[in-house]
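[recover] target loaded
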């Protein structure tokens, strides 16, 4: 019997940049990083893991927190 995964709702609450943490912990290559331009605050997504690949929806930075 194959078990189906339930759908998952993801909401972009707030996009932030913590310059002090970036300068302290992130390599120089990413010091000029800005807010994500792909998503907006308040944007919502319903992901059906049975049909979609998360890698097709989210960028590498977003997938790190999923």
């Amino acid at each position: 019997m194959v078990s189906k995964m339930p759908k998952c709702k993801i909401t972009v609450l707030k996009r932030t940049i913590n310059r002090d943490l970036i300068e302290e912990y992130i390599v120089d290559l990413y010091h000029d990083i800005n807010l994500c331009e792909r998503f907006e605050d308040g944007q919502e997504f319903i992901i059906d893991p049975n049909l979609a690949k998360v890698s097709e929806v989210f960028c590498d930075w977003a997938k790190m927190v999923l």
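[recover] notes: Residues 8-63 form one domain.
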